[in-house]
Design a protein that fits this description.
The protein is an alpha+beta fold. It folds into 2 domains: 195 residues, Glutaredoxin, CATH 3.40.30; 151 residues, Galactose-binding domain-like (Jelly Rolls, Sandwich), CATH 2.60.120.260. Helix content is 13%, strand content 28%. It contains 6 helices and 19 strands. The strands form 3 sheets. Strands 9, 10, 11, 12, 13, 14, 15, 16, 17, 18 and 19 form an 11-stranded antiparallel beta sheet that branches. Strand 5, helix 4 and strand 6 form a beta-alpha-beta unit. The radius of gyration is 21 Å and the shape is elongated.
């Protein structure tokens, strides 16, 4: 993100590491953390929603227009794995309680520069089957109004326009739904369902395998990357030939071929570049995209030197072949048990790939 998005000074990346990078923030997975008791005291009026540069699935909404409705404000950015895994629940709540007076508003505040592009957000809304209102917050105005610091972040607003609760990160879906039910009953809604949704996610939206998740998220631009293993390290902002080391430690990664490191990503300058990553998790995802609009980049991946077969993710076939044609999160690996340390190697057959972040599940 550009420095003019100054809506937070210190940030948390997706799994909670602090990094002083100005304009970014990320949610933390709170699975298994103690949930606070259902304290629903007023935290003040819902902040303004006027900073959106565009609305999707709805005309612009305001606190005045929403008075009388229970509102759930969901801060998201479309490549965040922590938010993606909450989406099945948020989508289901929006549908289930719509007739009882619930309005879900997704506030899309971007992390990466490409997430500011309206066409990318619109594609994500369509692909992810998001039908509730979305405020496109590309300048961070709504984020600042809420003094928010996380993706995902949920704000529960009662029918009087008062923020009654905040919830950050993954997990605690039962408690969140019980809060919605309580606020709807308070608002006078009749026939509020008392059962709970089953948020069975598919692909990257599936709940992680927490018991086997030993690899933290890692950004691949020079500003925030960790454990880069190519000899000589990362050279910022200059094209250079990189080589893969003979061995990588767990949670280390490396490049081979001609690449240029930018702050947010590494870009392949010539065809036949490689990326290697040793990880321990059921799922391996890579946020990436073509450097040029309407371009595509072919790739092939191997796991421990072999085609992935049954361990392939949604975006590759059993032999490990895939194509990058949009800037988004790609699911490359979904391992079968037993889960063990694995070496992922990707060969990009075309130049112009930009790789942003590796995430795990």
């Amino acid at each position: 993100m550009k420095s003019d998005l100054s809506f937070v000074a210190l940030v948390l990346i997706c799994l909670g590491t602090v990094a002083p990078i100005g304009a970014l923030a990320q949610g933390v997975p709170l699975q298994g953390a103690p949930m606070p008791s259902l304290q629903l005291q007023s935290k003040g009026d819902i902040p303004s929603l006027s900073g959106a540069i565009e609305w999707m699935n709805s005309p612009p909404l305001s606190p005045t227009a929403l008075r009388g409705k229970v509102v759930l404000v969901d801060f998201w950015t479309y490549t965040c794995i922590n938010w993606l895994r909450t989406l099945p629940y948020v989508r289901a709540w929006a549908e289930k309680y719509r007739d009882q007076g619930l309005v879900v508003i997704g506030v899309h505040t971007p992390e990466f520069e490409f997430e500011r592009t309206i066409a990318n957000v619109r594609r994500a809304v369509t692909d992810m089957k998001i039908t509730y209102p979305v405020a496109v917050d590309s300048d961070g105005a709504i984020w600042s109004a809420f003094d928010n610091h996380y993706w995902p972040a949920l704000y529960f607003v009662d029918a009087k326009g008062q923020v009654r609760h905040e919830q950050f990160g993954e997990g605690h879906y039962e408690e969140a739904e019980r809060m919605l039910q309580r606020l709807l009953v308070e608002a006078g809604a009749s026939n509020v369902p008392r059962d709970l949704v089953r948020g069975a996610g598919y692909g990257a939206e599936a709940a992680p395998d927490w018991s086997n998740l030993q690899s933290p998220e890692n950004y691949l631009g020079y500003e925030r990357t960790e454990n880069f293993g190519s000899p000589g390290g990362a050279l910022p902002a200059k094209s250079r030939a990189y080589a893969l080391p003979s061995r990588l430690k767990l949670n280390h990664w490396a490049l081979g071929g001609q690449w240029t490191f930018s702050k947010q990503f590494a870009v392949l300058d010539k065809a036949a570049g490689r990326l290697a990553y040793r990880f321990h998790a059921r799922d391996f995802h890579l946020v990436m995209g073509p450097a040029s609009p309407n371009a595509s980049v072919r790739f092939r991946l191997l796991i421990d030197g072999k085609p992935p077969l049954a361990a392939h993710g949604l975006d590759v076939d059993e032999q490990g072949y895939g194509t990058v044609s949009a800037q988004r999160l790609y699911q490359l690996v979904r391992q079968q048990v037993p889960i063990a340390d694995r070496l992922l190697e990707i060969q990009f057959l075309d130049p112009g790939i930009e790789v942003f972040a590796a995430t795990f599940g």
